[in-house]
Amino acid sequence: MKGEITVNSSKNSAVAILLASILNDGKTTIINLPKIEEVFRIIEIMESIGVKTAWQGKSLKVSPPEKLKLEKLDVEAALKTRIMILLIGILAHKLKKFSLPFSGGCKLGKRTVTPHLYALEKFGIKIKVKENEYEISRNKLVPCENIIMYESGDTATENAILAAALIEGKTVVKFASANYQVQDLCHFLDGLGVKIEGIGTTTLTIFGKENINQEYSFQLSEDPIEAMFFIASAIVTKSSIVIRRCPLDFLELELFKLEKMGFKYKIVREYKSENGFARLADIKTYPSELIAPEEKIYGRPYPGLNIDNLPFFVPVAAQAKGETLIHDWVYENRAIYYTELNRLGAKIELADTHRVFIKGPTEFKPAEITCLPALRPSAIILIAMLAAKGQSALKNTYTIERGYEDICGRLANIGADIERVEVK
Predict the structure, then answer these.
(1) What does the radius of gyration of the chain's CA atoms come to, in whole angstroms?
(2) How many domains is the chain partitioned into structurally?
(3) Are residues 212 and 239 in the same domain?
């Protein structure tokens, strides 16, 4: 591949901020919103309960209703995305009692709502987990100066922030996620007058407001996970390309580990994003001969190697001379999914449900594969197929389209021989 490709706005920031716009009784404009399936599902959910939305190019205008109609919730759309669990922290401000269906999204093993429950109950929100739904109720919401996150999950932290935003007074959230989407949400709410101290750290102090009602525009930050997709694609195809608008603060450790494996690249330019707080870089990649690292590669909460970026090291490790151990301790199923690359010629041995040993270098071969029920494991199959000599077919690509906008068209623009085919 050759040429230039630009990183889109963050999927995970987009869906959280899109839902958070419901807190604003005024009109919100979200600038540079990615047109991906996950965003479309959130819009369907919001419109079904009375929120009005209108696209204006790459921006979306959001207008709240006088009264939300939760009884008309689009359940089919809700079941396709896990992020709708954020509606608990949002709707608790609007309704004293309501129910939500279980959320869907990627199938990555057991993902309980316990961290959400433990955080939200501190505000006076009660959650009953029933067979097919969450039953939520509350009386008076109160701030809390000692919320301990049971685990520093991104979505659980966001739920706590959203709950605190419209409770007048001081809330302190400790052991919070400091990941990129959490920082974006904090900047979004800060711009709406919800003062938040400690953005980018694991202790957040939130000074909530009784209500928010203003016309407001917010520019989303770029997606480090999409940037990593393109970096990994360049590595496995031994391509020299320029990847523009990479959010450097959330890629530096990944790049450092890749550099130690032999990856050659150059930061061509550094600059600020239009929103003023994201640090961006244009990165030029070069064909590289890789060596397996002696240490295991594993993800962890920010500022560690991003848990969503860990899968991209699988096809990369398959190109490295030697044996690489990848430890995916967060999810029970995801390491199992990595072995699907064996169908493309990889040599991946499953040690247990969390660890794989990868021997390289591998020459990927073409195959016909159906996407897995998880976004990043499906994306790495696509990356391996880009490097496979011959024609491959990847089916049921909705999983990938949840998170990547026009991925075929954008890859084709830098020389990939790829085409999206509608199957009747």
Answers:
(1) 21
(2) 2
(3) no
Rounded CA-CA distance 9/336 in Å is: 29
Task: Using the structure block, give the residue that is written with the tokens 């996950």.
Answer: 38
CATH of residue 271's domain is 3.65.10.10
Is the same domain home to 204 and 250?
A: no
User: Are 275 and 392 within one domain?
Assistant: yes
Backbone angles phi, psi at 35, to 5 degrees: -90, 80
- 166 and 272 in one domain? no
Structure-block tokens of residue 262 = 């032999």
CA–CA gap between residue 130 and residue 116 (Å, rounded):
15
Run means of pLDDT, 10 residues per run, the chain, 424 residues:
98 98 98 97 97 97 95 93 93 95 60 86 92 90 97 96 98 98 98 98 97 97 98 98 98 98 98 96 98 97 96 98 97 93 98 97 97 96 97 96 97 96 78
Q: Which among 164, 187, 219 is the end of a domain?
A: 219
H/E element holding 269? strand 264-272
Q: Which helix (H) or strand (E) holds 180?
A: helix 180-191
- Determine, yes or no, domain membership for 418: no
pLDDT of residue 108: 46
Buried b / exposed e across 1-22, counting CB within 10 Å, b at 16+?
Answer: beeebbbbbbbbbbbbbbbbbb
